[in-house]
Amino acid sequence: MxxxxxLLHGFSQSLSDEELSSLKFLSxxxxxxxxxEAVQSGWELFTILIEQQDIAKDDLSFLEGLLENIKRxxxxxxxxxxxxxxxxxxxxxxxxxxxxxIAVICDNIGRHWKTLMRQLELxxxxxxxxxxxxxxDLREQQLQALRxx
Length: 149
Prior knowledge:
Death Domain, Fas; 10 helices; single chain; 2 domains; rod-shaped; 0% strand
């Protein structure tokens, strides 16, 4: 299950009836009266807020405000920890499986990178393209040539 939905489910389980009523009241400007009357759990409320895009995995400010208004600092802390963990574990923050070995190779081949690329059977045309695309950046030339390989 999605960690975000798991977090919301945990929040839902820890809410009292009084806190749920407060959350419903605080959400009344976002959700219609009929829908709010049908809400019986925090999970149902969170689901509606997600559907209406009032809360999202990458935009939790409204949810944080709701939890602060009902004085549930423990849940606010959990939410902030979740956001920090998501930022750390975001795919764009994780290096590609090939990036690290390529970086090590670039660090060690120096100015003779063309000789290595010819040994790896890259054509002179490909090498010239890389060199012309990055005329003054040796490291970028190496990197692009390795990627082309």
